Amino acid sequence: MASEILAQQSDQLNVVTAASAAEGLDRLDERSVDCIVSDYRLPEKDGIELLKAVREEYPDLPFILFTGEGSEAVASDAIAAGATDYLRKGHGTERYELLANRIENAVEQYRTNQRAAELERVRALVSNIDQALIRASSLSEIKTRVCEIISDSEPYRFAWIGERDSETDRIEPQTWAGVEDAYLDTIVVTADNSRTGQGPAGTAVRERRIATVQNIQDDPGFEIWREEALDRGYRSTAAVPLEYNNTLYGLLCVYSSRQFAFAEGEQALLGELGNSISHAIHSLKIRDELRAERTFTDQALDSLADIFYVLDSEGNIQRCNEQFARLAGYTDEQIADLDAVSLFPEDEQDAVAEAIEEALTTGQSTIEADFLTAEGKRTPHEFTADRLTDQDGNLIGLVGTGRDISERTRRERELQDQKEQLEQFAATVSHDLRNPLNVIQGRLELVQAEHSSDHLAVIETATDRMERIVEDLLWLAREQQEIGSLEPVAIDAAAEAAWKLVSDPADEAELYCDCEADTRPLVKADTDQLRHLLENLFRNTIDHAGLDVTVVVGIFGDTPGFYIEDDGPGIPAEDREKVFEAGYSTSESGTGLGLNIVKRVADAHGWDIRATESSMGGTRFEITGLETVE
Asked: What is the phi/psi pair of residue 152, to 5°?
């Protein structure tokens, strides 16, 4: 009767009856109950004894003693035993209306307290995990500790973290803790739209949100995993995506021993927990990537044969490679206390300080100075420095390298010695060889004036050849030098001037300049060096093509350059590269140096030269890569 009347009083009440205390306790084990209403007089046990039995298992469950045999003693015993309320029966339905109201109030208060306790429990859980995340030093430690802390917190029984395999679309478990009993070995979880992807884990990965199953027993979406889950005491589950800045780092799955364990507030806190875990994973990944990049950079810098260094804006050493430390002979602790200038001899410190200031001010500088080791040894180096700024363009120091130039210095000294020897040789050739040659030429002219003989013509040819050899050797030994100032030069004018100097023996030879006066370009060249190039080309042509050779000088129309071609016998294709080698000649009167000098002059200007066949069947020399004057 009480059951029927209560059902009439409120549509929120679902009343289940039991005829005894023992039967009531059985009902509690079978289903979830929000409130117990008990009479005082019951078979075997009275209502107080039932209350005490309930409180042993359910210390906070609402329990109302509703009895017709009320007394102050019974009421006192009921309250002392932990009754939520005590209400005496009466006539009519008014007492049942009051009872229904008391039930609803008790249940509401119970649920409120329960929710608060649950949220506090989850907050404590989140706090414990946050502390673990702060202390964790690796990704595996983060995942392991998270699963361990969750599984040790009631009513949770099991937790695991997995990642989605992009190739198979399976969610592969990586770390787990709690009551597992090979659960993960018996199930397959995916992130696709198949049956294995319809659970909370697959949904959380696809939709990037917390997904729950509040009642594993009845939820149809969990059917394929239900039996294995229930066998291990799992009654509800939640899946939390571990996402940071739109990057999914994995998935956290939590299993509870209670149905409807993941209320709205608890889900919100689990969401915050997921954010914390994701941020920690992201931070450690970035840290590991930076550490790997730093290691790679250090290995790369340490493999350099050159010194590498970083200075702060005050000139103090902030970082260096192994080569720097090894050469300096200081420990890392000693280097940290050094300023860069102290690593140079006193006689060079002012120049080094100026170079540092120049780099800080202008952006870069280069200086040659002796690096001073801890033992006092000086090693010549070439140091470069570049200004170092932060992302906002603020000056933070200098970065640079130092290259050991001991070998270069030694080589420069050797070259200087060779240069001096060559200059001495040139002086000897000029004075000790040219003077006797002049005597021979003078005496030869006197003899030729008095006598006529074929032998004298041979002597004249030989002396002319000796004269040219002397001139070429003097150019190679003394006059060969870096290109001087570049001036605008007209190729046709330079060619005609050079032709006049070399064509006297060849009266029948002719030069044609195929250059339009109004379109001929001016090119930048060292005038003296260009003249020497043209003289040697023309002399080579006369020597090999004969005294009646025809020579044409022309300008390329499509690319800056010019050509010189003749109607002589030409150069075989297999010899066209060899002709520029020193000493190569096919003429008895040739020196074997002329075309080598031509190649040297062209290279010094940055020009390209090649020998090929002319349009007249002879030889053609093409010089390209010239810079024209607008």
From this structure: -85, 0
Where do the DSSP E strands lie in 520-585? 522-525, 550-555, 561-566
The residues, ordered by sequence, that sit 6+ positions from 583 with a Cβ below 8 Å of its Cβ are: 592, 593, 596
Q: What is the dihedral of CA 319, 325, 331, 332, to 10 degrees?
A: 20
Strand runs (DSSP E) across 364-518, as ranges? Answer: 364-372, 378-389, 395-404, 487-490, 510-514
Q: Distances in Å between the alpha carbon of 107 and those of 97, 114, 464?
A: 16, 10, 129
**DSSP structural state of residue 547:** T
In contact, 525 and 489? CB cutoff 8 Å: yes
Tell me how far the alpha carbon of residue 47 is from its chain's centroid.
75
96, 9 in Cβ contact below 8 A?
yes
β 63-67/36-38 pair status: parallel
Q: Where are the beta strands (DSSP E) in 451-586?
A: 487-490, 510-514, 522-525, 550-555, 561-566
Report the phi/psi class of residue 281: left, alpha or beta, with left for phi > 0 and alpha for psi in -120 to 50.
alpha
Q: How do residues 536-571 score in pLDDT, each as one tens digit?
A: 898 888 888 888 889 999 888 777 889 999 999 988
pLDDT value of residue 380: 92
Percentage of the chain surpassing pLDDT 70?
A: 92
DSSP letter assigned to residue 231: H
Could you tell me which of 19, 65, 64, 77 has the C-alpha nearest to residue 40?
A: 65
Q: For 282-308, how does the pLDDT look when each residue is reduced to its tens digit (9 = 90+)? A: 988 888 888 888 889 889 888 888 999
Indicate the DSSP class of residue 626: P
Distance CA 263, CA 118 (A): 9
- Other beta carbons within 10 angstroms of residue 87's beta carbon come to 19
Cα(279)–Cα(579) distance, integer angstroms: 72
DSSP assignment, residue 434? H
DSSP string for residues in 252-321: EEEEESSTT---HHHHHHHHHHHHHHHHHHHHHHHHHHHHHHHHHHHHHHHT-SSEEEEEETTSBEEEE-
Angle between helix 434-450 and 454-474 (nearest 10) = 160
> Which among 42, 31, 119, 46 is positioned nearest to 78, based on CA atoms?
46
Q: Where does residue 163 rank: exposed (0-12), middle (13-18), buried (19+ CB within 10 A)?
A: middle
Q: How far apart are CA 278 and CA 282, in angstroms?
A: 6
Residue with tokens 């007209």: 490
Q: How many other CB atoms are there within 10 angstroms of residue 457's CB atom? A: 11
- Asked if 475 and 598 touch (Cβ cutoff 8 Å), the reply is no
| Amino acid letter, residue 176 | W
Cβ-proximal residues to 133 (8 Å cutoff; 6+ apart), any chain: 142, 145, 146, 276, 277, 280
**Cα 11 to the chain's mean position, in Å?**
67
Distant-in-sequence, close-in-space partners of 569: CB < 8 Å, separation ≥ 6: 544, 545, 618
